[in-house]
């Protein structure tokens, strides 16, 4: 009986994967937006086309981040429409405690964790990670709506001094339209 169930289940997934579109979530670029490099606490850089993939594609935490530091994060979300980035106010402008974000976020953090290893709570230890993955394997459901996205994360200390700023550009696309959609994302 178990064998029949397994065969039916396998057949169902084979049928679904052939009839439904598969979606790719791709990391296009990560750029530091810090101007004052002397106060950086968190930094990142990723360029999928870089020939020095292991040397330049990094996520760095320069010192341990603990709950007592009260580091806050302010995300800003943009979606590309034709040539312009449209600011999405409803998904932006909410400053939250970084440690609470790590513990409670169920929307953005799980996607980030597909590319870099982040803890599910503080402390966030000092680390230097190589970003080796540029996309999530094809899936049946998109992680976010189809299109090109820019996520800007600003990190502040208790004195409201900017201690980290990272721009992340990503693309959610169907596999069949990936090449054409990728051109619009740059």
Question: What can you tell me about this protein's structure?
Answer:
The structure is a single chain. The N and C termini lie far apart (52 Å). Mean pLDDT is 84; it is low at 4-18. The chain is built from 5 helices and 10 strands; from the N terminus they run αββαββββααββββα. The chain has one domain (21-185). The protein is globular and about 45 Å long. The longest helix is centred in the first third of the chain and has 18 residues, at 2-19. It has 186 residues and is an alpha+beta fold. A hairpin with a 2-residue loop joins strand 4 and strand 5 (84-87). Strands 1, 2, 3, 4, 5, 6, 7, 8, 9 and 10 form a 10-stranded antiparallel β-sheet that branches. Helix content is 22%, strand content 37%.
Short description:
Helices cover 22% and strands 37% of the residues.
Features:
single chain, 10-stranded antiparallel beta sheet, 10 strands
The number of helical runs is 5
Distance between the first and last residues' Cα: 52 Å
Q: Rounded to an integer, what's the Rg over CA atoms?
A: 19 Å
Q: What share of residues is helical?
A: 10-25%
* Parts with pLDDT < 50 across at least 5 consecutive residues: 4-18
Determine the strand fraction and express it as a percent band.
35-45%
Topology record:
Elements: H1 2-19, E1 23-32, E2 42-47, H2 53-56, E3 58-61, E4 72-81, E5 84-87, E6 96-97, H3 98-104, H4 109-112, E7 127-130, E8 135-139, E9 147-156, E10 162-174, H5 178-185
Antiparallel strand pairs: 1-2, 1-8, 1-10, 2-3, 3-7, 4-5, 4-6, 4-9, 9-10
